[in-house]
């Protein structure tokens, strides 16, 4: 009998001072600026095939988690909901998939917070929860908020 996939979920909420519209607009429209803004973590970002970021877009990231070697990921923007200020990303290729069979990230901007949710399936039981990815998401969120609050 086939074993059902064991999906797990982690969430983290980060308080923000900037307006939700301003934060979401910046996040949605300025990802190509992340390598300049977060040089210690985001090394490169590109939209595969160019163009604007929209549902179905595929992006390529080079990044370092704190203390990690350079890693890469190919990420599909699965959904954008501008009314709800929500974006869902699905990792389709890259280093994270060596540890997790599947890995999705959802970012949702509320009245005074950014909420990150990770949904993943571990490759085996010895794999840690991906808290380091939530740490990086929190760092990016705080950096964007600080930039917008200047």
Essential attributes:
150 residues, Alpha-D-Glucose-1,6-Bisphosphate, Chain A, domain 4, globular, Bet v I/Major latex protein domain-containing protein, START-like_dom_sf, MLP-like_ligand-binding
Description:
InterPro entries: Bet_v_I/MLP, MLP-like_ligand-binding, START-like_dom_sf. It holds the Pfam family Bet_v_1. This is Bet v I/Major latex protein domain-containing protein. This protein has a single domain, classed as START domain (Alpha-D-Glucose-1,6-Bisphosphate, Chain A, domain 4, 2-Layer Sandwich), CATH 3.30.530. Helix content is 21%, strand content 40%. It is built from 3 helices and 7 strands; from the N terminus they run E-H-H-E-E-E-E-E-E-H. A hairpin with a 4-residue loop joins strand 4 and strand 5.
Q: Which secondary structure elements does this structure contain, and how are they paired or packed?
A:
Elements: E1 8-15, H1 20-29, H2 34-37, E2 42-47, E3 58-63, E4 71-81, E5 86-94, E6 100-109, E7 113-122, H3 131-148
Antiparallel strand pairs: 1-7, 2-3, 3-4, 4-5, 5-6, 6-7
CATH superfamily: START domain
Task: Label the structural class.
Answer: alpha+beta
How is the biggest beta sheet arranged?
7 strands, antiparallel
How much is the radius of gyration in Å?
Answer: 15 Å
Topology, number of strands: 7
Low-confidence stretches: none
Spell out the helices and strands N to C: EHHEEEEEEH
Shape summary: globular
Q: Which CATH class is shown?
A: Alpha Beta
Domain Bet v I/Major latex protein: 5-150
Protein name: Bet v I/Major latex protein domain-containing protein
InterPro entries: Bet_v_I/MLP, MLP-like_ligand-binding, START-like_dom_sf
GO biological process, one term: defense response
């Amino acid at each position: 009998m086939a074993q059902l996939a064991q999906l797990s979920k982690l969430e983290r909420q980060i308080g923000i001072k900037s307006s939700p519209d301003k934060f979401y607009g910046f996040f949605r429209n300025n990802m190509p600026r992340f390598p300049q803004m977060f040089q210690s973590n985001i090394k490169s970002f590109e939209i595969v095939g160019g163009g604007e970021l929209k549902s179905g877009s595929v992006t390529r990231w080079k990044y370092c988690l704190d203390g990690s070697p350079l890693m890469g990921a190919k990420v599909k923007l699965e959904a954008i909901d501008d009314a709800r200020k929500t974006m869902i990303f699905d990792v389709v290729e890259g280093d994270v998939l060596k540890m997790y069979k599947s890995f999705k990230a959802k970012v949702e901007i509320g009245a005074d917070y950014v909420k990150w949710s990770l949904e993943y399936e571990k490759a085996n039981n010895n794999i840690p929860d991906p808290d380091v990815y939530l740490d990086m998401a929190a760092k990016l969120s705080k950096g964007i908020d600080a930039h917008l609050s200047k």
